[in-house]
Design goal:
two-stranded antiparallel sheet; 17% strand; 8 helices; flat; alpha+beta
């Protein structure tokens, strides 16, 4: 109950919502208790012990490999100097001069990550400009084209986009293919166990309806 109340700014707001719904706090408590009782009953009497084996997970993976197709991806860092594409010539020239200075530092051996932390105007600066892996599509086209043209370890020239000026470094590339079982196993196990639990609950309810009622004995 305390967790529910904590979602409201004040106790008055909480009581106001109860009044709008024409329910009392006691009714809410009773419903919470009922929900916990039902959950405990399901956990202990219906789905306890449900566990997907490695063999079952591997079999499902083998039969559904197309679901684990991965696209070509690049992991890149970048340094961004923001400049509006419609900015006047003086502003654009100043941004370019700043970026050329950063580029010169890179050519002299400065670490890309350090320069990103110092100069980049993107939210990724605290991570050294690291954008993680991304496929084709999410990034703006000039940035995407430049990033996917690089080999691991290579750095681009100055790239213009609607956000400003970028220098991009490719860290890693992933070729398109099928995700290995080791990477997919956790999700498969969760799916198989979830499906089996759902089936058991449905079967229990169907049998209960045939009998006409369900009696849950509660010992306090």
């Amino acid at each position: 109950m305390a967790k529910i109340k904590a979602t409201f700014k004040t106790d008055a707001e909480f009581k106001g919502v109860l009044a709008q719904q024409n329910i009392t706090e006691e009714q809410v408590k009773a419903e919470i208790t009922r929900s916990f009782i039902i959950k405990d009953f399901i956990d202990e009497k219906i789905i306890k012990g449900v566990k997907a084996t490695d063999a079952a997970a591997l079999d499902w993976y083998a039969k559904n490999r197309e679901r684990f197709t991965t696209r070509e991806m690049v992991r890149a860092r970048h340094i961004l100097i923001k400049v509006d594409p419609n900015a006047d010539a003086k502003t654009q020239k100043a941004a370019m001069k700043k970026m050329e200075g950063i580029q010169a530092k890179l050519k002299k051996g400065a670490k890309f990550e350090d320069l990103a932390k110092e100069y980049s105007e993107d939210g990724s600066k605290d991570k050294g400009g690291d954008l993680g892996f991304f496929p084709k599509g999410p990034m703006v086209r000039p940035f995407e084209d430049a990033a996917f043209a690089l080999k691991p370890g290579e750095t681009s020239g100055i790239v213009k986009s609607q956000f400003g000026l970028h220098i991009i470094k490719c860290e890693e590339r992933k070729a398109p293919g099928i995700a290995p079982f080791a990477d997919a196993k956790k999700d498969i196990v969760q799916k198989l166990e979830g499906d089996e639990k759902q089936d058991k609950v449905k079967k229990f309810l169907a049998e209960a309806r045939k009998k006409g009622k369900v009696v849950v004995k509660i010992t306090i």
